[in-house]
Design brief:
two-stranded antiparallel ribbon; alpha/beta
């Protein structure tokens, strides 16, 4: 089996926000040999630090264990991070032949090991597992907690896996995920907005940033809010606001508004 470059598309079918971590399509300890199961983990990362503070560890590894450590990361907000398309070191030794590193996909959900699970995160967890089962033709019974296929592990803490699998099975047995909405289709047609551009789409970016509460008074106090919102120029000040927004959303903070930034700005 090759590198699984369809994983981002599978994740998007959940309806949750998705970030493709740079380099994910060629990241892995070689290609993924097979997909016979899904293993659910928690990161045991910090109690705070934002949506997914464990990203660097899951992507790059830790002393004694090289990354990637999982194919997906799952933030506290239900945001999905696609980290690797090849084999990951997420479950060894495995007590199940269908859940070894070479036979399964791993999902590392952000949780310090004792925190309550936000409903939105748990819902995204179930939906991601369901879409992976659909993609690779797996029954819900192939979704396992790390603790179920590795006797030395406790994760993911406090999740009743029988209830979890029942929810996955209900989604698999239901209707396929809906086709993209007309608003999602429009987003695909929106132009790239780069530093120095001067056009009316820049006004849309300004309005969206303001609506999201991402424009401090200092940004427009010299010219007034109305004139600031009407400006069609992507000036350095706007670029910095875009970068700040991208960073908060877990998007590459390059200051360019494109297909990864428009959906978050418009909340599609």
């Amino acid at each position: 089996m090759p590198y699984l470059t369809q994983l981002a598309d599978v994740a998007r079918r959940t309806g949750r926000p998705v970030t493709e971590v740079a380099g994910w399509q060629t990241r892995g300890h070689g290609p993924q040999p097979g997909v016979q199961g899904v293993v659910c983990h928690h990161t045991a990362g910090p109690a705070g630090g934002g949506d997914y503070p464990s990203l660097a560890v899951v992507r790059d590894g830790r002393p004694g264990l090289d990354g990637p450590l999982s194919h997906f990361g799952l933030g506290r907000s239900g945001h999905i991070y696609v980290i690797a398309a090849g084999r990951c070191w997420h479950n060894a030794p495995s007590t199940s032949a269908m859940h070894t590193n070479s036979a399964s996909l791993g999902i590392e959900a952000e949780n310090n090991g004792t925190q309550p699970w936000p409903d939105v995160q748990k819902d995204a967890y179930i939906r991601l597992c369901a879409e992976l089962c659909r993609e690779f033709g797996l029954p819900a019974s192939r979704v396992k907690a790390h603790r179920e296929v590795n006797t030395s592990k406790p994760d993911p803490h406090s999740i009743d896996m029988n209830e979890f699998r029942a929810a996955v099975a209900a989604l698999i047995g239901g209707a396929p995920a809906p086709a993209p909405s007309w608003t999602e289709e429009i987003v695909k047609q929106l132009p790239m907005i780069r530093p120095g551009d001067d056009n009316f789409d820049v006004k849309t970016v300004r309005g969206c940033l303001f609506a999201r509460g991402r424009v401090p008074v200092s940004a427009y106090q010299q010219v007034g809010l109305e004139d600031w919102l009407k400006s069609t120029r992507c000036d350095p000040g706007l670029v910095e606001l875009v970068r700040g927004f991208q960073q908060s959303e877990g998007i590459g903070a390059d200051g360019v508004v494109g297909p990864k930034t428009w959906p978050s700005l418009l909340r599609v």
